[in-house]
Amino acid sequence: MTNYQKFAAVYDSIMDDSLYDQWTNFSLRHFPNDKKTLLELACGTGIQSVCFRQAGFEVTGLDLSHDMLALARKRAQAAQVAIPFVQGNMQDLSHLGQFDLVACYSDSLCYMEDEQAVSDVLEQVYAHLNSGGIFIFDVHSTYQTDKVFPGYAYHENAEDFAMVWDTYADEAPHSIVHELTFFIQDEDGRFERFDEVHEERTYDLLTYDILLEQAGFKNVQVYADFEDKKPTKTSKRWFFVAEK
């Protein structure tokens, strides 16, 4: 495994595994029973895609990262499930077909650089959904970006890697910067340093509603924090369920 694939694998070790069960359960409650073909955007190392496949969906996974997808293919093979993984940008799905369902979790839409980029994704998803299809995605709430994240710090030391994660408020409204530094052990026992900067931005609920309506979606429902409850002022994660 290359160092970059090791770097991608570190993401799995720092993620809370219970979140994938929660994303799966939320999806199963809100996806119609008669819909089967599912596209997962920003699928990463494929954990959620495998969960969806094991739940009975015909899954296609899309991600920008070659290294993430290499791990996703190994994960699907180990789980003995068939999932096509495609490298690509969710702002351009023209090389893909039509789907009954689309999911985009782990606040992946918050990585879009601006409102227009979010709009582009919504329009692409709408174009590649079958009539009556459902799009589910989650994003950080404005409370999360404005009150919870700024000043957040997380450090972890494991046998073969160490990580420092600090989060700061950014200039644009409801935006944050995650600065991540990893020290990953190579085959010779030496630690190699990797630095990444992740910029995320969210918008108020009305903005998402407007963008979804402009893309053509209808019957938009909004929930919070993996539960079938409406958002409150202190909800951290918003879930949108939209129909074509």
From TrEMBL:
<dbReference type="InterPro" id="IPR029063">
    <property type="entry name" value="SAM-dependent_MTases_sf"/>
</dbReference>
<feature type="domain" description="Methyltransferase">
    <location>
        <begin position="39"/>
        <end position="133"/>
    </location>
</feature>
<keyword id="KW-0808">Transferase</keyword>
<dbReference type="InterPro" id="IPR041698">
    <property type="entry name" value="Methyltransf_25"/>
</dbReference>
<dbReference type="GO" id="GO:0032259">
    <property type="term" value="P:methylation"/>
</dbReference>
<dbReference type="GO" id="GO:0008168">
    <property type="term" value="F:methyltransferase activity"/>
</dbReference>
<dbReference type="Pfam" id="PF13649">
    <property type="entry name" value="Methyltransf_25"/>
</dbReference>
<protein>
    <submittedName>
        <fullName>Methyltransferase domain protein</fullName>
    </submittedName>
</protein>
<keyword id="KW-0489">Methyltransferase</keyword>
